[in-house]
Design a protein that fits this description.
Blueprint: E1 2-7, E2 23-26, E3 29-32, E4 35-43, E5 48-52, E6 59-66, E7 78-82, E8 87-92, H1 98-107, H2 119-137, H3 141-147, H4 154-163, H5 171-191, H6 197-217, H7 224-240
Parallel strand pairs: 1-8
Antiparallel strand pairs: 2-3, 3-4, 4-5, 5-6, 6-7, 7-8
Helix pairs in contact: 3-5, 4-5, 5-6
């Protein structure tokens, strides 16, 4: 059975249930902290990633990415998630990294830390994709950008201060980081969807330089986890603004042009 879903893939990356920040692909293993979940193989030239059962090496999930041989045009790009009983084609606006696709599947509980597939959650994942694109198609440019605020990590940062005695994550410091992104989104909205790519990039430059200054002012504010949070958020705002993260810093994303953290 095959279904086709069109969505901004970044908009569902952090929407559902599980924190997948610690998932990494390393030396043929998908790992969460010290737990090996499954084996993997990747072929960048052919554009696929495959996850395999740790014990039997049976194929669990195949992820295939296609740019239709049009690197300059990403409107027709797509990725296919192949499960034993379901194939889901997702057209993407902008590109994501391989680990992003794996995290998306994990957050939606299509597999667990034991490398076991969940048929029910795979079906629900497909339904969520359908619901997401219905909503996104109805949003204007400004509404898409404002929706990015739902991915702000700053509330979680404040909780760190309580749970782990990390005093740098005060309300004041987190509000300062939030204000930088509020300004970025506000400027992009006021400039309008049709403003030049160069002008939009200037707004991102201003935001990243402001984050550099804030990080220099507040010792330990942007460590490894926070860096991932911010790069993820900036990539998603980039896509919502109509730009492609892969067009900047040799594919690393627009933040990498100026960030010092």
């Amino acid at each position: 059975m095959k279904s086709t879903v069109i969505l901004y893939i970044g908009l569902v990356m952090t929407s559902f249930f599980l924190d997948a920040q610690n998932l990494i692909l390393k030396k043929g293993k998908l790992i969460s902290e010290d737990t090996e979940i499954c084996n993997y193989k990747i072929d960048l030239s052919e554009g696929w990633l495959r996850l395999y059962d740790l014990k039997t090496n049976d194929t669990l999930i195949i992820i295939e990415e296609s740019f239709n041989n049009t690197d300059a045009n990403y409107d027709d790009d797509y990725v296919i998630f192949k499960f034993p009983k379901q194939e889901i084609k997702v057209e993407i606006s902008g590109t994501s990294f391989w680990i992003d696709y794996v995290k998306l599947l994990y957050r939606n509980k299509t597999f667990d830390l034991n490398g076991q597939l969940n048929d029910l959650q795979i079906k629900l994942f497909k339904l969520r994709m359908d619901e997401n694109i219905t909503e996104m198609n109805s949003l204007s440019y400004s509404e898409k950008l404002n929706k990015m605020k739902t991915f702000y990590p700053f509330k979680n940062w404040i909780e760190y201060a309580v749970d782990f005695d990390m005093k740098q994550y005060t309300q004041e410091n987190c509000d300062a980081a939030k204000h930088i992104f509020d300004n970025l989104i506000d400027k992009l909205i006021k400039a309008g969807e049709d403003v030049s790519k160069e002008k939009k990039a200037q707004y991102f430059e201003t935001a990243v330089i402001a984050l550099n200054a804030l990080n220099n002012k507040v010792e330990g504010l942007i460590e490894t986890g926070e860096r991932e949070d911010l790069c993820f958020l900036i990539d998603k705002i980039t896509i919502a603004s109509g730009l492609n993260p892969k067009d900047y810093a040799d594919g690393e994303g627009i933040a990498d042009l100026w960030r010092e953290w």
